[in-house]
Automatic annotation (TrEMBL):
This is Serine protease. Residues 1-34 form the signal peptide. SUPFAM superfamilies: Integrin alpha N-terminal domain, Trypsin-like serine proteases. Belongs to the peptidase S1 family. Residues 101-359 form the Peptidase S1 domain. It comes from the Bacteria. The keyword Zinc-finger does not apply. GO terms for biological process: proteolysis. Keywords: Disulfide bond, Hydrolase, Protease, Serine protease, Signal.
Length: 594
């Protein structure tokens, strides 16, 4: 048993029985393209729109009210546990009361707008609580021990926009559409606790401000003595105190980063935490516990999953710590986000067609029939309807960040369309005309660093343009990102190939050269890197849809003239592993892969 999973009253585990009426009442739940030949239109798609191309299981998604049956069950759990309501003052982060995480101070939600509350109904009818951080409009970063083994889609809700512990009347509610926890987190061994990170995809986009993750591999924020800020609604007293309770309002505390050696020595000296600290995947912050909640500053039960913020980025996730939260000589332990940022970003920026946590591939044959192939093997095929013959480019993205895969499609008439779900049905919006001569169109994700998906094109002169997304299917004024791309027959990208948290591109020339351009996160790219000088001469299709094999790194798909499709697994360092055959000659029948 690891410290993050001990019974209530020991550590900041997820299963602290809720208090403070969090669940007591009923819920209810234009920029333009620059080129004159690419003017906005906004009219309906032409005849032949693939109206049957619906996402599997998506009919229940898209911004309605939170499941009232779930609300009723959570209410009953709250009533059985004797929960009481928090005051209006507490909801605003004001008023009297225990002003501490343990030793913290109250803050309004405007000071930490990305903080969210995670409420879950357990199988036995009890409720549990964790914190989380909104890292994209529809994505929440939290701890794996708050997520693993649970069904958040069926039993959980997320509350944003309030400093007060949720009463049923405050905050904005969202359901959970899907969940991902680190595949190497199992929570039952000293090694598995190292991977305590998870991402929830919400059933709608939220309007609260988001917070970025630590830069992958960057150790600068973890320098000993650097002060971070932890936020949460967790216990305000020693976890062994029978009067310990969740805070009725959001609290923060300043904690200095502790050297790994210091942390390891201190935790090994405590019987219940000896051997659990693993440098590299976790770190300590704060000052040693004093044994008293009057003089200790620390996170505690209920703070699990919440962030430790340094320089405006989430560098840590509240994970575990010494017994009872104030143990003399003990420290708070946080997941080291920079270690796992690449894997988490693959989920934050994913386009997961069938909601299984892995990127998928769309294909169209010459007759206009469309199919979705599911990762990681691409051997499971489902029809996405007919009517695709009117399009010569189809790309997966999520322009409105609602968690449902959108499509960017170019019609044979040269118009560009955005296919998306509006909460009731699938609609096609023509967003631009005059794209018939555009050489390349790519939907790679966020190129500009604002957490909103962008669009990239290469015009007939070989000039590269970035169209910054606005998060609503519209785009700002285009940005020139490069030139000299006339010789590239293919240009693709989705996600981060280099492991720095920025979106990259891969392109191929007719001579068989394969090249990578590292994104800078500002709409520009670094110098190209040669992946192969001539090895891809017989390739006739490239596709990049994200992390196909589920290892947390963006992958590349390549089809050759003999119809064989290969997966080139990304290594997260700008290179790819040995190719894996995904299919043979049957892939020759497809005229679009995307």
């Amino acid at each position: 048993m690891n410290p993050a999973q001990r019974e209530s009253g020991k550590l900041r585990i997820r299963r602290h029985k809720l208090s403070a009426a969090a669940l007591a009442t009923v819920l209810v739940g234009s920029g333009t393209f620059a080129a004159s030949s690419e003017a906005w239109a906004g009219t309906a798609a032409p005849t032949g729109t693939p109206v049957k191309a619906e996402l599997a299981g998506s009919a229940s998604k898209g911004g309605g009210t939170v499941d009232q049956s779930l609300v009723a069950r959570i209410r009953k759990a709250a009533q059985r546990q004797g929960l009481v309501g928090s005051s209006p003052e507490a909801q605003n982060g004001k008023g009297a009361g225990a002003a501490r995480i343990i030793g913290g101070t109250p803050v309004p939600i405007t000071s930490a707008p990305s903080m969210v509350q995670l409420w879950y109904l357990n199988w036995d009818g009890s409720a549990q609580f964790c914190g989380g951080t909104l890292v994209a409009p529809d994505k929440v970063l939290t701890a794996a021990h708050c997520v693993a083994g649970l069904s958040w889609k069926n039993n959980g809700i997320v509350v944003s926009g309030t400093a007060g512990l949720w009463t049923g009347e405050n905050g904005k509610l969202a359901g959970v559409w899907r969940q991902w926890s680190h595949p190497d987190y199992h929570g039952d061994t000293r090694d598995d606790i190292r991977n305590d990170i998870a991402v929830l995809t919400l059933d709608r986009g939220l309007t609260a401000k988001t917070t970025k993750l630590a830069v992958p591999g960057d150790n600068t924020p973890y320098k000993p003595g650097t002060v971070g800020t932890v936020y949460g609604w967790g216990l305000t007293k020693d976890a062994d105190d029978p009067e310990a309770d969740l805070s009725p309002r959001l609290l923060k505390a300043s904690l200095p980063i502790v050297a790994d050696s210091t942390c390891n020595t201190a935790l090994n000296a405590l019987p219940e935490t000896a051997g659990y600290f693993k440098a590299g995947g976790m770190f300590c912050a704060g000052k040693p516990g004093t044994g008293s909640d009057a003089t200790t500053v620390a996170s505690c039960h209920g703070d699990s999953g919440g962030p430790l913020v340094v320089g405006g980025r989430v560098v840590g996730i509240v994970s575990w710590g010494a017994p009872n939260c104030v143990e003399e000589g003990g420290y708070d332990v946080f997941t080291k986000v920079s270690t796992f940022a690449v894997a988490a970003l693959a989920r934050i920026t994913d386009t997961d067609w069938n909601s299984d946590g892995k990127a998928d591939l769309l294909a169209r044959d010459a007759k206009g029939n469309g199919y979705a192939y599911s990762g990681p093997t691409l051997r499971s095929r489902s029809s996405i309807g007919s009517g695709w013959k009117s399009y010569n480019k189809v790309l997966q993205t999520d322009l409105d960040r609602d968690g449902i895969v959108d499509l960017v499609m170019r019609g044979t008439n040269g118009s560009l369309y955005w296919r998306h779900y509006n909460g009731r049905s699938w609609v096609n919006t023509r967003v631009s005309t005059g794209w018939g001569s555009i050489r390349q169109i790519v939907a790679p994700g966020d190129l500009t660093g604002d957490d909103l998906p962008d669009l990239l094109s290469v015009d007939k002169a070989g000039t590269v343009w970035v169209y910054p997304g606005k998060g609503n299917g519209k785009f700002g004024a285009r940005i020139k990102a490069g030139s000299g791309f006339k010789s590239y027959t293919h240009l693709v990208g989705h996600g981060d190939f280099t492991g720095d948290g920025k979106v990259d591109l891969v392109g191929r020339t007719a001579a068989g050269g394969l090249y990578l351009w590292p994104g800078k996160g500002n709409g520009k790219f670094g110098a190209r890197k040669t992946l192969s000088a001539t090895g891809f001469k017989s390739a006739n299709a490239l596709a990049a849809t994200g992390d196909v094999n589920g290892d947390g790194k963006a992958d590349l798909l390549v089809r050759f003239t003999n119809g064989t499709l290969y997966l080139y697994p990304g290594k997260g360092n700008g290179s790819f592993g040995a190719r894996v055959k995904m299919g043979t000659g049957s892939w020759k029948a497809y005229t679009i892969l995307g």
